[in-house]
Amino acid sequence: STQKLWGGRFTETVAKYVDEFGASIGFDQLLAAEDITGSLAHVKMLKKTGILPAEDVDQIVAGLETLEKRLQAGQLEFSTVNEDIHMNIEALLTAEIGPVAGKLHTARSRNDQVATDFHLYLKHQLPKILARLQALEEVLVEKAAANVTTVMPGYTHLQHAQPISYAHYLLAYYQMFRRDIERFKFNIQHTDISPLGAAALAGTTFPIDREYSAQLLGFSQVYHNSLDAVSDRDFVLEFLSNAAILMMHLSRFCEELVSWSSYEFNYISLSDQFSTGSSIMPQKKNPDMAELIRGKAGRVYGNLMGLLTVMKAIPLAYNKDLQEDKEGAFDTVTTVLTSLHVFTGMLATLTVNKAQMAHATTNDFSNATELADYLANKGMPFREAHAIVGKLVLEGIQKHRPLQDIPLSEFQEISPLIEADVYHDLDAKVAVERRHSLGGTGFDQIRQELKRAQAQLAKD
Ligand code: ARG
To answer: Where is the Argininosuccinate lyase C-terminal domain (predicted)?
Structure first.
């Protein structure tokens, strides 16, 4: 490992295992396309400003474009001798066009170069994630539209609480993913800033035009402090935080898919296409994909914690610690994209066991609030009504008799306020339908929310 691009002031060479330890080419070759794009913009800026003669720039541009084509054809070979993607590309360019390649690095450093590459990379990935989220939202809305009147138990503490519509449940997730979309969109703003031209840390004496290179790269802004430009990884941390929150949402949903597809719940059934069998138990159909997405949430949290910890004590400006910023982010992009893809397919193909959901609301006393509300509506203080209904529930549990099976005569002994219309209110479907309050589970409320969601999706 002689012939380092930076070898001038060195008399001893670095041992191979040390070189390998310091090298990032193993993973940052993922930035090859961005690195070439960044170099093209930089060198075109050097031409426009007259910093480099046009003939030199034209040769460099032609060389970079050749490398670009070879990259696309899978023909570029990288080596740890050249440490990272930036020096690998420069070495390949030198092999292609000779010593004039050495002029490319005028008024630039790997520090602003790597930051530029990473901004470009994330700027390209965020729209892919947004597109997958949009596809998921569309499936959620479709499924909700088909299930407005599908009644099921709503839970608190995993105990039957009050009946709700399955569509209302689905639209709760619609709202969560909606906020995820907003967060990733905001993330684009902090990613869409050009660090190029910050050079090593302090700017440069060359008369560069940072706005021009930013414009060529499609960045809408430039960093206004060179120290910040080369050491800021907030945009990556924001991405990882947003990804962690998104994975948390997917994981909660998956937790419910896993339990709801169990024999005990039997509310839903996952398609065979998204399930796996057992190598020993012939009857098994396992919700592996839902479990795996739930597990991958942990992996993404780990990537967030990893980078937060790397960043917490790095003095300004660039330090080699920053090379640890990439793998977790790359891994998170892949994890989020694949998890969203699989999850959306799983959701689109699952079947809903409406009869079982409805059945679960019939003997579970989840209409107890209805009876208390009924009495309160007739003028009884709610606290008193609560106590009376509580006693009826206790008795009902002992006698295995749900509230709607109590004869009117017995009801009237308890309170003369109760009349025959009570049975209407005790019906689970009616209990859902009547929850007209804004954001409630009432069928009309859900229909309004569906319209709002459909309009939002059409706008995005
Ligand atoms: N491979 C390095 C990274 O990923 C590029 C920047 C290196 N700069 C330096 N002065 N060592 O961060």
So the answer is: 365-433
- Three-class SS state of 88: helix
Helix and strand numbers (H, E) in the chain are: 19, 6
Residue 2 pLDDT: 53
Rounded to two decimals, the pTM is 0.94
The 3-class secondary structure across 369-420, one letter per residue, is HHHHHHHHHCCCCHHHHHHHHHHHHHHHHHHCCCHHHCCHHHHHHHCCCCCC
Q: What is the pLDDT of residues 260-271, one digit of tens each?
A: 999 999 999 999
Q: What is the ipTM of this complex?
A: 0.96
Ordered structural domains, the chain, with CATH? 7-106 (1.10.275.10), 111-150+163-359 (1.20.200.10), 368-459 (1.10.40.30)
Distances (CA, A) of 231 to 162, 236, 303, 317: 52, 12, 19, 5
Distance of CA 171 to the CA centre of its chain: 18
How much is the mean pLDDT over the chain?
A: 96
Q: Is 278 a catalytic residue?
A: yes
**Ligand 1 neighbourhood includes 108 CB (under 6 angstroms):** no
Q: Is the CB of 28 within 6 Å of ligand 1?
A: yes
Confidence of residue 146 (pLDDT cuts 50, 70, 90): very high
**Probe target for ligand 1 pocket from 110, 119, 230, 322, with the most ligand atoms within 8 Å of CB:** 110
